[in-house]
Amino acid sequence: MIDRYPVPGSGRQMRNVVVWFSASLLLTTLFAAAPVVADGEAAKETTQDKAERPTSPYFRPLARGKAGAPAFDGKFSIDRDQTIVILGGTNALETQKFGLLESALVATHPNYQLRVRNMAWQADTVYRQQRPRHFFQPSPIPYPGDTDGRPQIAADTIFLWMGQSESLEGLDRLEDFRKAYAKMVEQLSYFTPRIVLVTPVPFGIVDGVDLPFEERNKSLVEYVDVIKDIAKKHRLPVVDLFGRLHDSTLGTQGLLRGDSSGVPQGIAITRNGMHLNRSGHVFSLNAWIHDLNLIEDSGTGPVQWEIDHDLLDKIIAKDDLWFRYWRPTNWAFLYGNRSLQPSSRDHIDNKKRWFPKEVDSILPLVLKADDEIHALAKKATKPKRLGR
Questions:
Q1: How confident is the model at residue 336, as a pLDDT?
Q2: Residue 134 within a domain
């Protein structure tokens, strides 16, 4: 069984929030082929392609994105309908709790149908990614029962957000990290050339807890440099969360001072010195907007964005549905080693299974919500520079 984290039921908790950005940010308020592909259009795989496909369970849910999508040339852009997949650990996973990143992406690209699929997982690192037994594995399985026949997700663009947990092992493993991260980028490039690398957020002081956060950040910055080196080598865009938030972590009592990162004094951006809280995700939006070129001009002046809460609500609701489909509870009864139990089968005809049908029924709701998000995005306001 997998426990899911609590997801707010409505984005209206953030109603009347106006977010201001600038160089200084201010806050004023997936393996064997599945039968079909869940999102978008997948490029056809030849026999040679399948032989080269990464075999780790981590990649089982993925399918190749649309053929012909151009690689990034160091700069992020969206010029067509697509599915964007988010990979990483806890901070990446929890972007869907608040809906801010997806809101920014769709609001600034209303002419394209964007499907955002958060496939991040708590505790994932470049070294290890644990999944339930036979997760997204249609065949074979070593015991009687049904296989996981959920369709793969065609990845047109991938955001990769890792490195913070790995840095806790210190500089002795820096070269191990370099090799493992580079290998992961290479493996992801099988599915799409459009990969965005995201640097980890810095460690910060936790009120009342004596943690060596400054030493940790000295190590972390070396890991961040590795990510940037790999991005430069492959001409991949970088969202530099570490660079934009780092200076502010040097505040006291777990609070962040108002400096070049734009986090005002008295605002904590993590809940434990490592994982972003709601304010942290709001302030991180500064990096996402600037580094993904989601603003129409390249100036450095103040930026204002009044969030469309109907859009935000719909995204949060969609992401909740997606999570229930992507990571269903009671895995052992669904496609694990207890799928033969009477409770996972029809009470009249035990050859029929009700549980997989319930899970499969969620995907059409997700796709319907995508269409509604696209319609709302066309009416949403965009971030803009003040005075323009």
A1: 83
A2: yes
